[in-house]
Amino acid sequence: MLDNIEIIKKESMNLADKIYIFDTTLRDGEQTPGVALTVDEKIQIAQKLNNLGVDKIEVGFPASSKGEIKSAKKIGELDLDSTLVGLSRSLKSDVDAVLDADLEYIHTFIGTSPLHRDYKLKMSKSEIISKATETIEYAKDHGLTVEFSAEDATRTERNFLFDVFSQAVSSGVDFLDIPDTVGILTPIMTRELITDIKDNFNVPISVHFHNDFGLATANTLTAIECGANQAHVTVNGLGERTGNCSLEELVMTLKASYGIDLGLDTTRLYSLSTLVGRLTGVKMPVNKPIVGDNAFAHESGIHVHGILNNSATYEPMSPEMVGHSRRIVLGKHTGANALKSKLKEYHIDLDEGQFYKVFNEIKALGDSGKCVTDDDLIAIAITELGSAKETPIVLKGLSISMGANVSPTATVKLEIDGVEKEKANTGVGPIDAAIGAVRELVQDTMHIELEEYNLEAITGGTDALAEVFVITSDADGNKSTGRSTNQDIVMASIMAVLDSMNKLLLIKRA
Question: Span 316-329, mean pLDDT?
Answer without folding.
Answer: 86
